[in-house]
Amino acid sequence: MANKHFGLFAKQVEEQMNKQPASILIADDDSNVLMALKLLLKAENFDVTAVDKPFDVLQLIERKNFSCVIIDLNYHRDTTSGHEGLELLTAIKKRDEHLPVIVMTGFSSIDIVVEAMKLGAVDFVQKPWKNIELIGKIQAQITIGELAQKGSRLAQENALLKSEGQLKRQHIVADSANMKALLTQIELLAKSDMNILFTGENGTGKSMLASYLHHCSTRNEQPFLSVNMGAITETLFESEMFGHVKGAFTDSKEARIGRFELADNGTLFLDEIANIPLSQQAKLLRVLEERQFEKVGSAKTQQLNIRIVSATNADLSLMVEQHQFRQDLLYRLNTVEINIPSLRERKQDIIPLAEYFSEHFCEKYRIENKTFSDKTKDVLVNYTWPGNIRELSHIIERAMFLSQNDQIEVSDLGISGVEVIDNSPEPLSLNSASLDEIEAYFIKQRLERFNHNVQETIESLGLSRSAYYRRIEKYKL
Ligand SMILES: Nc1ncnc2c1ncn2[C@@H]1O[C@H](COP(=O)(O)OP(=O)(O)OP(=O)(O)O)[C@@H](O)[C@H]1O
Fold first, then answer.
1. Which residues form the Sigma-54 factor interaction domain (predicted)?
2. Which of 122, 181, 279, 355 is spaced 20 to 30 Å from 394 by Cα?
3. Are 348 and 209 in contact (CB under 8 A)?
């Protein structure tokens, strides 16, 4: 009955640990003890490794992740004092302070137990052990260990989210045909596990769309972690990306979980990917190819289940030609490449975006909602937008404060006339213009007025669709 109960428990632990059976390392110099423990723990569905020398314990924990270690306190060198076991305990804790260690001895004295606890043992078992008690202690330590690991992972994730503020899901404005098509493409690709490279000018929305891709994917319950590759210094690259164990460097007092591990099972977004130094590109390539890595200072290889999305405003093919970016890395990153059009290539989005930002900032600063005058709309639509959507958002934010009334005028935008592309038709002399010239002039003016929205232009001119297209053809507009 008891056996059944614990079998069930081990199964639950197994499920919690991503379907991997919890792995236990046991060390004792008595082969009968090892045999008995092995039989007991295997029957509970644990993955058991048994060794009879302290040295083997140290070698193994450097290579493999164990959920719990059970060690005898006495070995061959001196069979009663417990000192050899305490030395082993100290050495284990030096290598991995979070690994739960349960100590076990047949010759226990209160002093040795107290000493073991002081050195970091999490529990104590007296030989001959009671099966139910031993398994109960293991079960408790595995659960505590998992919670501690989750806690430290969450703390690091939270720190990253706070510092980078990337994961907020936002409203995506996409009225233009090309952005609508692009969103549909992203939604379809999201369901695959392919690596995606977003390209496009600064401020076009690459980061936002990477986050949207994650949101639409089957990984959306898992982390979306963004790393600005330009912000990671060459010397810290490995430690930041792969993490490090305690003591890996002279000043590393704490172990650190790297970005790859933090994003495991989710999506890792490598922003500004062109900024990764050539010397580190090979290391990134290996992780992408083999889906495994080692922490700095550790020989343990860790497996990864991760989707990589990256972004750049650089021409990576040109960088490959100039030997600044590895071609094999580019091929790994751009299984699919998505180019985000600049704002001047999707004029239909400009006014909806401006209205969206105006609403957003009015709400944020608790001011009355403002509208845009027709002239202001014209200027917004015809400006070149070198900084794309980010620039538009800044200009609208500023205009909210500069405008003195409830309508935003051109002067509130602070855009110098030089950068505005003047698409308005040449002025027409009604005294000398032909009927055709006048008609062409008005159609052109209306098209500009309605940001090339055909339906609105047709309605305002009172034409049928076919009559409109006949004229477009005739006047070559
Ligand atoms: N379609 C959109 N709808 C609403 N807001 C958008 C849209 N696209 C971008 N933005 C906003 O514009 C700003 C810039 O977007 P984002 O940071 O994603 O651009 P980026 O291309 O990654 O920029 P950079 O190349 O400089 O890193 C952000 O505040 C983002 O929320």
1. 172-401
2. 181
3. no
